[in-house]
């Protein structure tokens, strides 16, 4: 699982994101990853891109929920909020812990706010 990056998000702006659980079929090892991009009109567009990539690597994917990320690289701030109509709200506290592994010098916050 080390070959899969914990986080792949756009470098700037406000965009949709999903929290995805990876697992080997029949295996105990699992890992959660964050994916987000402005290119996605809907949360399922992100999953439709991630799922085949992960299947090629031998993983099963499950979307645990979604929301939005506001990424301000100039001020080194990330805000996680909102929800996905299709997948429900991701556990933003889990998302923040994953983001902190990658963006170690950022101020990262979350809320249940819709905007």
From TrEMBL:
<feature type="binding site">
    <location>
        <position position="16"/>
    </location>
    <ligand>
        <name>substrate</name>
    </ligand>
</feature>
<feature type="active site" description="Proton acceptor">
    <location>
        <position position="43"/>
    </location>
</feature>
<dbReference type="GO" id="GO:0101006">
    <property type="term" value="F:protein histidine phosphatase activity"/>
</dbReference>
<comment type="similarity">
    <text>Belongs to the janus family.</text>
</comment>
<dbReference type="InterPro" id="IPR038596">
    <property type="entry name" value="Janus_sf"/>
</dbReference>
<comment type="function">
    <text>Exhibits phosphohistidine phosphatase activity.</text>
</comment>
<dbReference type="Pfam" id="PF05005">
    <property type="entry name" value="Ocnus"/>
</dbReference>
<dbReference type="InterPro" id="IPR007702">
    <property type="entry name" value="Janus"/>
</dbReference>
<dbReference type="GO" id="GO:0005829">
    <property type="term" value="C:cytosol"/>
</dbReference>
<protein>
    <recommendedName>
        <fullName>14 kDa phosphohistidine phosphatase</fullName>
        <ecNumber>3.9.1.3</ecNumber>
    </recommendedName>
</protein>
């Amino acid at each position: 699982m080390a070959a899969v990056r914990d986080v792949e998000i756009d470098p700037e702006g406000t965009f949709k994101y999903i929290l995805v659980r990876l697992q080997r079929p029949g295996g105990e090892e699992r890992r959660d990853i964050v994916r987000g991009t402005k290119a996605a009109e809907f949360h399922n567009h992100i999953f439709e891109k991630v799922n085949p990539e992960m299947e090629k690597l031998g993983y099963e994917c499950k979307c645990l929920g979604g929301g939005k990320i506001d990424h301000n690289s100039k001020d080194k701030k990330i805000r996680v909020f909102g929800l996905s109509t299709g997948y429900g709200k991701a556990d933003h506290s889990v998302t923040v812990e994953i983001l902190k592994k990658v963006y170690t010098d950022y101020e990262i916050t979350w809320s249940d706010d819709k905007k």
